[in-house]
Every structure is written in structure tokens, then in C-alpha cells.
Amino acid sequence: MALTNSSLRLAIVYSSVTGNTEQLAEMIQKAALDQGFRTELYRIEEFSLAAILDYDVVLIGTYTWGSGEIPEEMHSLYQAVEKLGRKEQWTAVFGTGDSFFAEFCGAVDRFRDMLYVKTQLVATLKVELTPQQNDVLRCEKLIELIREKEMQMFSSKKHGYR
Ligand SMILES: Cc1cc2nc3c(=O)[nH]c(=O)nc-3n(C[C@H](O)[C@H](O)[C@H](O)COP(=O)(O)O)c2cc1C
């Protein structure tokens, strides 16, 4: 269901080896497009770090590696966001993992902790391995949180709050 178009520009940047996080990223992109957001999807290798500044909302997708670790190819994005420290930037982090491991989706937790401090973290989402049909709803909910925050911002601007 397409709602009225948003003025926010979203980037989804993800890393995926076996395709689980890629599927989740695509589900989130569909939810965002359906809810009227201008949304671009990038694999991390295709994303220019300088482009972070072009987006109002950056949604970061990562699988987890080693023992709860962020995969190597995501380190430069982590460091760039941490260094920029833009409190006006809205972010979300999502990922897939395997609860067999001690730190389920540990990379999502590590991004979350940094994004919470350095940006306005709006949402997190963790999925067990391959996304399922019921995860569509969770992706829609994640995007709704961005929509709600946008509406709150619009409403406080209208009433003269900053
Ligand atoms: C060597 C190795 C280490 C992993 N370590 C973790 C881990 O610590 N925590 C976790 O939740 N998942 C872990 N996983 C599982 C992957 O994160 C999971 O399979 C994920 O869905 C892969 O995402 P992708 O299909 O997008 O590549 C590990 C997988 C491998 C192969």
C-alpha cells in the first residue's frame, strides 16, 4: 500500500556472502518503496562512503562472522559513520545470523551500540538465517518506525519546535 511520498532519501547498504542478508535487504527495500520512500540498495562493495552524506537515513545490513564479529568488508563503513558522528543522520541496522553461535547477530549488536551513540538510531532487526514470510511484517514495521519519526519531526517543525 503506497502512502504519500516521503521527502526522505534512504540508502540500504549491506554485506552478504550466502544471500540471507541480501534477501532481507531486498525485503526492506520493498517495504520502503511500498511506503513511499526514495530508496537505493547497495552492496557494500558498490557503495561510496562519501555518499553517506547524500542520505537522510542509512540502513545497514550485516551478517555476523567469527565469534560475533563484524565482517571485514563492513569495517570501513563502521569507521566512517563513527568518525562522522552526525547526530542528524538517522540509521537502522539489520542482519541475519545463526543462533547456534554464542553471540547471535553479534555484528548487529556492535553496529547498534556505535550507531546509538553517533547517530539517531531508529530501529534494529535480527533474523535467523534465511528470512521467512513472517519477516515481511517485521521489515514493514522497521520502515513504519522511520515513517513515524518523520511525522513527529514534521509535526514539531509545524509547531515551531526544533
Ligand atoms: C565461520 C562462521 C562464523 C559465524 N559466526 C556467527 C556468529 O558469531 N553469530 C551469528 O549469529 N552467526 C554467525 N554465523 C552465521 C552467519 O552470520 C549466518 O549464516 C548469516 O545468515 C550469513 O549471512 P549471509 O547469507 O548474508 O552471508 C557464522 C557463520 C560462519 C560461516
Automatic annotation (TrEMBL):
<dbReference type="InterPro" id="IPR050619">
    <property type="entry name" value="Flavodoxin"/>
</dbReference>
<dbReference type="InterPro" id="IPR008254">
    <property type="entry name" value="Flavodoxin/NO_synth"/>
</dbReference>
<comment type="function">
    <text>Low-potential electron donor to a number of redox enzymes.</text>
</comment>
<keyword id="KW-0813">Transport</keyword>
<dbReference type="Pfam" id="PF00258">
    <property type="entry name" value="Flavodoxin_1"/>
</dbReference>
<keyword id="KW-0249">Electron transport</keyword>
<feature type="domain" description="Flavodoxin-like">
    <location>
        <begin position="10"/>
        <end position="147"/>
    </location>
</feature>
<dbReference type="InterPro" id="IPR029039">
    <property type="entry name" value="Flavoprotein-like_sf"/>
</dbReference>
<protein>
    <submittedName>
        <fullName>Flavodoxin domain-containing protein</fullName>
    </submittedName>
</protein>
<comment type="similarity">
    <text>Belongs to the flavodoxin family.</text>
</comment>
<keyword id="KW-0285">Flavoprotein</keyword>
<keyword id="KW-0288">FMN</keyword>
